[in-house]
Amino acid sequence: MGMKQFVFLILLLPIISLANTKLPTKISDEIKSFALFNYDNLIADGYETEKPYIRQLANILNEATGVSTSIFFQTLTNEELINESNPVKYMLLLNKKTIAVSNYYFADD
Fold first, then answer.
1. Residue 84 — φ and ψ, nearest 5°?
2. Structure confidence by residue, pLDDT tens digits, 58-70
């Protein structure tokens, strides 16, 4: 490898490392299905003490991305998500927040 190629690779590395990565289809579909089918329960959990649906979704996201469950739990209990009145918008907002904490996404906008 020549010096020019090496320098180019070094300059390209930060750009590559900042790129978002789509999760595999199977886990992406699982996250989308869970968020949409359990939307009412996820919103209700925002006002409850136990939050079983939010914990389950945080676990799914943890397994998919490797980011800690506690970080996803904090993300999922965010007022912006809890106050979203449309299930599809909820899922897309969750997708954006997942990118913000993990650089992974599960839905194309």
1. -70, 125
2. 999 999 999 999 9
